[in-house]
Design a protein that fits this description.
33% helix; 3 domains; Rossmann fold; Type 1 dockerin domain; single chain
């Protein structure tokens, strides 16, 4: 890796949700026509006014353009061109009306390469996804009952928590040795949409399905959804995935509660940063623990690093909503090897050690942290009791935002309410999942810090 390690100093940014802005557009007489709330959350073509829903307001918006009452601002409203032919006509109005009525059509969306991809709308058949984080997305979006397959091995599927994910033991394993989907098993499974993160696909398979769809009978096509589950790629995260799939599966009314929840957390964080001189930016590093250990070897670790404009993992995407900045800057990649010497040189204020163990107790997490911190005794984070052992399924997924207020209460002690942080985590799981939170503080979801030892 690049041995030139620098401490980053970057302003606090909200990564997960693109901030909404009010846009006043001009009518053809030069006067103010109206104000629209542009969000860039629903990146489906047909969302003409670029808000959070595809509805009759989009039809009205298109009619103004077609009738000459308004000029199309392509930069602000790129999704007005529903059929992506480069112009706004009656055909776009007709297509959006078909979407609103749930009629069969081709729907276009902006993919993680910032290109244009499509699906056969509406998606009412079986869906295959990656893993648990995608199950959570499906529950938020209201299409969990459509999941029929996932990219986990049969043994991994058998170990899924049916209390949290009802019916998951019946999911079909579509995990290939190469991790990416393979054509024949997907066709045999009967799914009509395969979704995941970039590791789920390769170009050859995507092209194979595209060619297959040209001659497939109605209802037998298989679309590849190039929207992330647990990544932020070119500014597109699971937020956009949740909104897009809500529309594509005719479940868009289910998505607004999650965005309202995220907005609430963001507001609390932003208010604290603005109103308290003690909430100062700190540097951090995320060391990925894998299934049971946090070391790649005795001297080397794996770290997740945030890099603007790249493919970023869910953990750093969420953590960057806090007044935190990566202690290692300008990495070659966003998942990199680091040594103890690298960490000692960077001297992060905070160290997160992440695990993916789902059958552990809170006491197991405490014991694991005790063993893990021995390697970091000469770091600033160790001396200031700022090393945490956290579940990737918490911080690296749709649930990640729920953990931020609690983590903030530990990192900036006295500036945030720890109980409020716990309550917000419980609120997330109670509202959007089937996880039992009655004993939440003793589960593996609960973050553990050096102060708990």
């Amino acid at each position: 890796m690049d041995k030139k390690i620098m401490i980053a100093a970057v302003a606090v940014v909200a990564i997960v949700i693109v901030a909404a802005v009010a846009v006043v557009f001009m009518n053809n007489d030069g006067g103010n026509e109206e104000t629209e709330r542009v969000t860039n959350n629903l990146i489906v073509y047909g969302n003409a006014n670029n808000d959070n829903k595809l509805d009759s307001k989009d039809v009205d918006f298109l009619k103004k353009i077609v009738n000459g009452d308004m000029t199309w601002d392509k930069a602000t409203y790129p999704y007005a061109d529903a059929n992506v032919d480069g112009k706004i006509t009656q055909a776009d109005i007709d297509l959006v009306n078909k979407f609103i009525k749930g009629e069969s059509a081709i729907m276009y969306y902006k993919d993680w390469n910032l290109g244009i991809s499509s699906v056969h709308f509406p998606i009412t058949g079986k869906i295959s996804v990656s893993r648990e984080v995608a199950f959570d997305i499906a529950m938020i979006g209201g299409w969990y009952d459509q999941i029929a397959g996932c990219q986990k091995t049969p043994d991994e599927i058998a170990k899924l928590d049916e209390t949290a994910y009802p019916g998951s033991h019946k999911f079909i394993s579509l995990r290939a040795e190469s991790v990416a989907y393979e054509f024949d098993p997907v066709i045999a499974s009967g799914v009509t949409l395969i979704a995941g993160d970039p590791y789920s696909f390769d170009d050859a398979v995507i092209n194979q399905f595209a060619n297959y769809n040209k001659t497939a009978a109605a209802g037998k096509t298989v679309d590849c959804l190039l929207l992330p589950h647990s990544r932020e790629i070119n500014g597109i995260s699971w937020i956009q995935t949740i909104f897009a799939l809500g529309v594509m599966t005719l479940n868009q009314d289910n998505t607004s509660d999650y965005v309202d929840y995220v907005d609430k957390i963001q507001s609390k964080l932003e208010d604290a940063v603005k109103n308290s001189a003690n909430v100062k930016e700190k540097s951090y590093i995320c060391l990925y623990a894998g299934s049971s250990v946090y070391k790649v070897s005795d001297t080397e670790f794996a770290a997740d690093i945030y890099k603007a404009g790249a493919e970023n993992y869910g953990d750093v995407t969420n953590l960057n909503m806090l007044p935190l900045t990566s202690a290692i800057k300008n990495p070659i990649d966003t998942y990199i090897p680091v040594t103890i010497d690298d960490i000692l040189t960077a001297q992060p204020d905070v160290i997160f050690i992440e695990h993916t163990v789902t059958n552990a107790t809170h006491q197991d997490a405490i014991n694991n942290l005790k063993n893990a911190i021995k390697a970091f005794e000469n770091t600033k984070a160790y001396k200031n009791n700022q090393i945490y052992y956290v579940a990737y399924d918490l911080v690296g997924s749709t649930a990640g935002v729920s953990s931020l207020l609690y983590l903030a209460s530990q990192i900036w002690e006295g500036e945030f309410d720890a109980q409020d942080g716990i309550d917000n985590m419980k609120d997330y799981y109670n509202t959007f999942t089937k996880v039992d939170t009655s004993n939440f503080e003793n589960t593996y979801f609960m973050p553990v810090g050096m102060k708990d030892l």
